[in-house]
Structures are given as structure tokens and as C-alpha cells.
Amino acid sequence: MTHSSPMGEFSMTSNPAVTHGRQRFDIELSREESCMQPPSRTSLVKGALALPLVAWLAGFGVPGYCLDRPVSGTSTNEQVPDAGWVVTGSLNAARVGHTATLLPNGSVLVVGGRDNAHTLDSAEVYDPATGTWSVTGSLNTARISHTATLLQDGKVLVAGGGVPPGLANTAELYDLVTGAWSPTGSLAAAHAGHTATLLPNGKVLVSGGTDNFSLLHTAELYDPATGTWGPAGSPTWSRYSHTATLLQNGSVLVAGGIVGPYDPDIEFPAASYAELYDPVAVSWRNVGTAIRLSDHTATLLPNGKVLMAGGYSVRPFGSGGGAVTPGGAELFDPTGEAWSDTGSLQASTFGHTASLLPNGKVLVAGNIFDGGNHAELYDPDTGMWTSTSNLNARRAGHRATLLPNGKVLVAGGEVADATNTPIAQNSAELYEDGAPPKVIGAGFTGAWYDPAQSGHGLFIEVLTGNRFYASWFAFNPAGTGQSWLTGVGTYSGNTATIASVVMPTGGRWIPNFDPSQIALNPWGTLTFTFTDCDHGRVDFSSVIAGYGSGSMSLTRLTQSLGLSCP
Questions:
Q1: d(Cα 346, Cα 344) in Å, to the nearest integer?
Q2: DSSP-assigned states of every residue in 84-131
Q3: pLDDT below 50 — which residues of the chain?
Q4: Helix, strand or coil, per DSSP, at residue 371
Q5: Cβ of 323: how many Cβ atoms within 10 Å?
Q6: Which domains does the chain have, with CATH numbers?
Q7: What is the pTM of this model?
Q8: Residue 555: which of 301, 316, 363, 339 has the closest Cα?
């Protein structure tokens, strides 16, 4: 059968061979056939996921389907002024299907994936200060379609994936200090195309994916304290190429993806079903009905809602051939557990990334369609998308990481050459909002909070002599008490750093107060970056077990009387 699309033709002919009860199809692509399927002549097994043969490992496709170019939605054509992309140092190895993880020291760890010939066991680290990459320790197992999760102790957990078709149920830990990898407990099943979510209790939830021949109807929990995996209840649906988003209430929203069990009439339906995982009850339940999306992105916004954007919705070949419906975008509101439409992307987007910027907007970058260098911004306040500067290089299946300085690092990915063969890339570039950042001044004094963390926040005071004071009334990792973090540092431009944050303990209520009973326990470091007088972020890294490293968006709550920003 031949399916025509705006991007060319896709030819699919039945082969009498049968593999383990599943019909096999031979696919042949010519230079004009540009459906982003595997290059040249290969075989797919319908009803199975032949990982080494399909491009979805790089985030590109679904076996047995041709991806038509979706129809763009409505949006504004206004372009963000003066925002742009700057080329930075190239990766040591071309990669697609890799992971990228922001480390506590502000560097970025890139792991695995594949180049143009092999699945990779190599890893490298990007230094934002120098704009260069350095090789670090190699994985014990080469991996693609794995996950990488920053744990609260600063180590990185890599789980699943592997070298198709030999998928792995193994996991390993990366130590930033030594640059070495060490094995940890194995999963109960091999997973690829799954999700991994760090929970507030420090455990990691792995959900769904495939074991190469079937979609997985399982979820597992990794406990860093014991280095072992345990069951995490049973999701309602088997799925892969889905998303999992940690909500402000501690539950996890799992949405979209290709869902099972199989329907003979709809072999790989994109899921319209979403589920919530409750880490306290260790249970799953359905929540609302979303648009059918797979290989989309899901971004937690400052207001606590989740933005789902891009991707595709698939129906199988029939008399009219395969088709992809418009991806679009929509919002999930945890308060009412309801879905609602929002502005449509300017361009059909697939194989992209989405990054929450310090100003609360969402940057979507890269694409299989529209030349592959398209980028645009979503504004939660208006629900509209605006175009921004194009990437310097076409790419899809890349990774994007928000750096502590507010820039976005985009690295790797792949692009089709003149013969429609996907070529892995080693280039990298940085996105920076063109609006000049506000310089910290007295007007920044006041209370700041993160709406996505139930109003969790802190107090800031800008002192004379470029000094910067912060007090953060927080909670301990176990949830059994409160913690008070405080310290004084310095600021320059739009950035302030408190290198010696302390956590006071002890003391007594007046009139029996005795300063000698107070211990100023070293806690770690806080780094503040502001995009304007009302928005910013705080990056934290603690030396006390359990607190870990991470970041929190900041929105102004109060401003001291008589003060204003320039």
C-alpha cells in the first residue's frame, strides 16, 4: 500500500513471512519518500516493537505508520525581539536519543544515545563557564531510550534502555565527584521509552515503556536508601512515549503516549486517557480525557497547571492510509482535575523540546517539520504562542536543559540528509531571552514565592555594599518538621549567591533565650537569578543528606513600602 502526504510517499508491502504470530511488513523508502521512517530497506514487525529498526528510539515514529505533516493551529505572529541562539562548544560525539541532566554544580551530564552507527556507552559534561564539553566515565551498559534522574544526594540514576533488541533491566549511578558509574539494583523488567520521576520522598517512579515485544503495564519504585526497586501499583493502561509530570501536591500526572492493550482495529492508538499516581496510597486512577497525543511535551507551569504541547495522534493504515491529526496544546488543571484548550502552536511540532524559562514562559524548540529549526514561546498569562529566533541548526530528538544563568542549552539530535537518512548531530547552542535582565537593587526586597509549590517561598533583603540576605522557612525532607535556612551573600548584575547558607537549630523562647544554645549548621548554597523585578529562580545545593539539589521558580509576593525597581 502507498500513502501520500505533503512530505512524500510511503510504500508498505505485505511480506508472507510471519514472525512469532505477527505479520511482517517490508518498507522501502526512496529519496522522495520522506515520512521519517527508518532509512533504506528494513523490516518492521506489526504488533511488536522492533527497537533496532524503528526511529521512535530517537523520538521520531511508530512502527507501521507514516506521519503526515499536521495542520498548524492559530496563534499570534508577533516575534519576541532580540531573543536569539548562540552556538556553543560541540559534543565529543554526535548523539540522538540521549539524556541530559543538570548537575548540582551547574554543569550538564549527557549520557548514551546513538551516533550514526552504534548505541553509545559514553557520557560527557558541559561546563557553562567555558562553553566546552569534557568526556567523563563510561556507562557499564550502552543505552538508548533510557532515563536519567538527579537524586537528592546529587547522584544521577540511569535506568533501562539498552542496545536493541537486547533491552536492559539494569540501572547504574553516576557520581559527580569521581566521574564514575556504579551498578545499582535491577528493575523487575526491562523498560525502554518509559518515564522516570523523582518523588518528594526521594524515591524514583518508573512507569510504562516497552520490553521490545509488548507495552508494559507496570510501574516500579527505586529507593536510593537501599538501592533496590519495588512495585508501585498497576497503571490502568500500558503505554510508551508518554509523559509523567510531578504536580505541586506530590502526585504524578501520566498522560498521552501510545497506549495498550492492543485493539485489532487500532493497533497503536495515541492515548486520550490520563492517570494520576498517588505516592502515599501507591495507587493509580484515571483523570479526565485529553487530546490524543504521543511524543508530546508536558511542562509544569508556575500556576500549577500542566501544558501539553506538540506531538502527534496516529491512526493505522486502512483504505485511506495512515494519518496524523493536529497536535495542538492543552492545559491540565490539578485543582479541578480538568483539561482545557489553550492557544495552538504556530507550527506543527514533533521531535521538539519544551523548557520552562525563568520568566514563566515555555520555549519549544526543534522540529521534524518546518525545516527543523523552528522555535516559539508560550505565555501562560495570555495562552498564546509567539515566534522567536530560529535555531542555528536543524534538529529533532535533541535535549534541552535550563541552566542556572537562565539560558537554555540545546544539544545533539538528528536531521535527515538529502537521501532522507537521519544523521545524528554533535552541535549545541544556547538560547537567551533578548530582554536585558534587571539589575538587582533595593526594590527586590520583599517576599517571593513559587505558585507551583503551593506558595512555598522566602524573604529577600538587598543590603548596602552589594550584599544580599535571604531567609527561607522550609521543611525537612522527612516532612516531620520545619527548617530555617538563612545567610548573607553578594550580588552582581541580576545574580546573587549565598555560598554559606546555615540552618540554625537549638535555642529557647524568651525570656530564657541563650545564644550559646544555637548551632549554625552549614547547609549549602543558594543562587538567585532574576529576569525582571517580579520573576526569577533560586537554585539550591545542600550538603545535608535529603535536601539534595534543584531549583524553584520565584514570583514576587510583596514589595517594601517606598521601594521600586528601576
A1: 6
A2: EEEEEPPPSS-BBS-EEEE-TTS-EEEE--B-SS-B---EEEEETTTT
A3: 1-77, 79, 81, 262-267, 316-325
A4: helix
A5: 19
A6: 2-58 (no CATH), 84-432 (2.120.10.80), 442-556 (2.40.128)
A7: 0.71
A8: 301
